[in-house]
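Hi D.,

Good news: the full-assembly prediction came through. Inputs first.
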Amino acid sequence: MKVLVASSEAAPFAKTGGLADAVGCLMKGLRAGGVDARLVMPLYRSVRRNFPLKYTGTDIKVAVGGRKYASRVFSYEGRVCFVECGEFFDRQELYGTPAGDYGDNAHRFIFFSRAALEVCDALGFSPDIVHCHDWQTGLVPLYMKTAFRRHFAKTPSLFTIHNLGYQGLFPASAMPLTGLGSEYFTPERIEFYGQVNFLKAGIVAGSAISTVSMTYAREILTAEYGFGLDGVLRSRQKDLTGILNGIDHDEWDPEKDASINQNYRREDISGKKACKERLLKECGLKTKGPLLGAVGRLSAQKGVDVLLGSIDRIVSEGAGLVLLGKGDSAFEDALKAVSGRHKGKVFFKPGYDEAFAHRVYAGSDILLMPSRYEPCGLSQMIALRYGAVPVARRTGGLADTIEDYAHLKGRGTGFLFSDYTPGCLKESVKRALCIYADAGKWKRLVLEGMGKDFSWETSVEKYISLYESLLRRAKR
Ligand code: ADP
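Then the structure:
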């Protein structure tokens, strides 16, 4: 089976979040499963600098808004191809700077969506399935039925939503750039309250739609989680499935992790204590009790406001807190202020720091994830593997990967709460701290979480069987 995977980011090449991890692992898994999967991505400046790419000798021309952009195609080990367009992608960042998104993102990702299809013909790769990810490639399934129907009319597409909160919304003036006729600018198609919505294009035109957890697949059908697209999603409900992401077990393995000061494994977790001591020292924390960590983007989605509202109380319970995050500057300022107020008890590291993230997972007893919504979430799976017990909101992938601790049975892998309030987070932390006080119970809980399998194998099998069912359907 030949699969074209189109994504605006993928590990290890370019990453701003979980999308890159998911696509990187999916590619690895598909190839291990014998699928001829090729990934197409934009050629960002950082990729050109950091990876030894080879010019394929192939050039393509990509039409965007009445202009044809010449683009050279590069490859990495023959399985990933990068489409060049210096004007759009030779930049510091992927989507924008702290001041905001790049003003020409519509232009950039129309270019990329068309280039992803152009490249197949140019390289003589004719995929059985095209698998696209998030709004940046939302137009691809629609182009397969319109401008590129000559080659793709019979090819099924799978459109995966990694986060419905990011839709690729652009003013109506972006419509002519798409090359689609004005008949596509209707609420049934890609109009969204007067704007063009790239994500909606993928939902409307994809042969099937998937998202990254079973619970999120149900949640996005509701007004509360649907970001205005719940109606469109309900109309495609029979083609919508949830397939949980996994984590890269090679990258996230406390037994082999080179970023932590002492390795450990489920059979002998004594090294975790040394990791905690080192983390406390590194962060200048003087607390003797449990250490709570949090790693993530500082955005409203991640529940930073709820976290901020509960820090005083958590500290008063004698716990220490290590926070790592990059994002919204208002949240950064608020976290800096709180850590300043609780010197020696709360440490906040602003920015993106992978090695430090590894040390937080390894050194923490508890990982906080009070997300407002969470399509899948990787941090809680990583935490479980590193023996940090998650305290999280019961939503999306968090609900699918964490088993709430049942006090009577003494079973579970974490602590879940439902209401999005600081009070509920505090209650859950208190529940966790009660168990923490009983070393035997706590160890059982830690080991139960560490024993869970979040590898990609199961997810890849599900994707492959979804591809197969789409192929069967297309042949009928
Ligand atoms: P997202 O919504 O950002 O995709 P996920 O939980 O799915 O959230 O994935 C986040 C990934 O990015 C995890 O691997 C997490 O460890 C990592 N991460 C998030 N923020 C940071 C940061 N500031 N520094 C280092 N790693 C981070």
